[in-house]
Amino acid sequence: MLVAGTDGSDGPTDAAGGIVDGKTVTDVAVARDALQRADAGTYLRDCGDIFITGPTNTNVMDLAIAVVS
Known about the structure:
The chain is of the alpha+beta class. The chain has 2 helices and 4 strands; from the N terminus they run E-E-H-H-E-E. It has helices spanning about 30-35, 40-45, and strands spanning about 1-5, 15-20, 50, 60-65. The strands form 2 sheets. Strands 1-4 form a two-stranded antiparallel sheet.
């Protein structure tokens, strides 16, 4: 599954979102703590899975693609 999003230039950080797959979470306790603190951005940056596009000047919302076989 791929989930990506962008919020143009109206967000408070330089990140447009994250690219998360089955290899993103290597320590469930650390991931859970980041989510409980509402700080997924720092967690994804530390994992190398942050998605930074630069300003898009659009608000096209989120995109989710799931492939089920």
